[in-house]
Design a protein that fits this description.
This protein folds into 3 domains: 73 residues, Arc Repressor Mutant, subunit A; 99 residues, 2-Layer Sandwich (Alpha-Beta Plaits), CATH 3.30.70; 69 residues, Alpha-Beta Plaits (2-Layer Sandwich). By secondary structure, the protein is α+β, with helices and mostly antiparallel strands.
């Protein structure tokens, strides 16, 4: 899980910049609209909506925006007709990449994603080509700058977490999808600072690539996530710490 953990951390740190560009709120809005259309506008019975709302709040999305998104989802306000699209492909070096999108134009999204893979030296695969390499999980990042990471890890395990990885400044917790809210709530009750909590696809196994190829993969993942229709991107690369630090430094300079 370490590759997923470190990439998630970079994405979380880049979140503020994404919000400035307005893209983050757009993606959060689309997620809320989609889950409302699938499970209804009552967060008490629609657990995916509860998580989408919490995710929006974690990213400082105004309550009015959240309410409008819910109303667009249930038809009270006019909204986009969105379709879920899952695309599968291979990075430079042959690593597996899974792209989840919400779009009002399926063909446009597929073409945009295909072009991004091609420009980056990768390729789009057939349906089912890489999905089997990933498991759905709940993923929680807890910031540990002022707290005992080991104690928080034990609290998470007591609450039902499947796995915990400790990194510098944060821990990442893996749960069953249905246990995400329970573990998050237990951590918050113990004073934990939640950096992010979301449903994710976690690779069953990871692959190692050389530095040059790893940097190309990281750039491709970033470019894919910058596409308006793309909601989530996951990859099965085990990112080396030194390469991630190099890429992180380059990203923060831009």
């Amino acid at each position: 899980m370490s590759g997923h953990s470190k990439w998630s951390s970079i994405k979380h740190q880049k979140g503020v910049a994404d919000a400035r560009r307005g893209k983050l709120f757009t993606k959060l809005t689309r997620e809320i609209i989609s889950v409302v259309r699938q499970g209804g506008a009552n967060p008490e019975v629609n657990h995916r909506l509860r998580m989408a709302i919490q995710k929006a709040r974690d990213n400082s999305m105004p309550s009015d925006n959240i309410e409008r998104a819910i109303k667009r989802g249930d038809g009270t306000l006019e909204g986009e007709k969105l379709t879920e699209v899952v695309l599968e492909g291979y990075s430079p070096g042959g690593a597996a990449i899974l792209v989840e999108a919400l779009t009002d134009n399926r063909n446009r999204t597929i073409q945009d994603v295909r072009n991004m893979f091609s420009k980056s030296g990768g390729s789009l695969g057939e349906s089912g080509s890489v999905t089997w390499l990933f498991n759905p999980k709940g993923m929680i990042i807890v910031e540990t700058a002022d707290q005992d990471a080991d104690e928080l890890a034990l609290k998470a395990i007591d609450a039902g977490a499947e796995d915990v990885i400790t990194e510098k400044g944060y821990i990442e917790i893996c749960t069953k999808p249905e246990e995400l809210e329970v573990v998050r709530s237990a951590l918050e009750q113990n004073g934990a600072t939640i950096g992010s909590a979301e449903l994710a696809r976690v690779p069953k196994t990871t692959v190692k690539l050389d530095e040059k190829t790893t940097l190309q993969v990281l750039k491709l993942l970033d470019k894919l996530e910058e596409l308006d229709d793309v909601q989530h991107v996951c990859c099965n690369v085990d990112f080396a710490d030194d390469v991630l630090e190099k890429y992180r430094a380059q990203s923060l300079v831009k």
